[in-house]
């Protein structure tokens, strides 16, 4: 397994990330494509976990106004779920954030995935909200300095 990141929308890594997102969010969860591809697309760092050359999982981050990292679009292709791939991507992102002394990670967790993020040390931060018709909660994880 290898995780590769990019900021280039012209890279194959970004294209692989986008394919995973399209399958998971647009096809499976019926998120409209115009919500899936959003105003942050150009400002993100994209992460893809590969098994050999096969892309299996992805996530993206962008820098918040106060210097944290907002994690979004965490997705694993259906046949490869429950094998720890999303955890590997999030741990990798956390390691990169620690190296850059990022103060915290924040994300909007679908409620059905909240337990997963709790196990990774995230805490619920605020009331439930709807995003693309799906129930979410903001979750945050403070990082040591």
Automatic annotation (TrEMBL):
CDD domains named in the record: NAT_SF
Pfam families xrefs: Acetyltransf_10
Domain N-acetyltransferase positions: 4-144
Gene3D superfamilies from the UniProt entry: 3.40.630.30
Keywords of the record: Acyltransferase, Transferase
Positions of transmembrane segments: none
InterPro entries the UniProt entry points to: Acyl_CoA_acyltransferase, GNAT_dom, N-term/lysine_N-AcTrnsfr
Keyword Transferase carried by entry: yes
PANTHER family given in the database record: N-ALPHA-ACETYLTRANSFERASE (PTHR42919), N-ALPHA-ACETYLTRANSFERASE 50 (PTHR42919:SF8)
Protein name: Acetyltransferase
Organism of provenance: Bombilactobacillus mellis
Lineage, broadest ranks: Bacteria, Bacillati, Bacillota, Bacilli, Lactobacillales
């Amino acid at each position: 397994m290898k995780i590769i990141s990019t900021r280039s929308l012209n890279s194959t890594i970004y294209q692989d990330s986008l394919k995973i997102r399209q399958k998971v969010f647009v096809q499976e969860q019926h998120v409209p494509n115009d919500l899936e591809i959003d105003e942050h697309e150009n400002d993100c760092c994209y992460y893809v976990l590969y098994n050999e050359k096969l892309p299996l999982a992805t996530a993206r981050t962008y820098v918040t106004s106060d210097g944290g990292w907002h994690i979004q679009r965490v997705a694993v292709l259906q046949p490869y779920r429950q094998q720890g791939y999303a955890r590997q991507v999030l741990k990798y992102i956390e390691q990169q954030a620690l190296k850059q002394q990022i103060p915290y990670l924040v994300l909007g967790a679908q409620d059905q995935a909240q337990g997963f993020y709790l196990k990774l040390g995230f805490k619920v931060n605020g009331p439930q909200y709807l995003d693309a018709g799906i129930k979410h909660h903001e979750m945050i994880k403070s990082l040591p300095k």
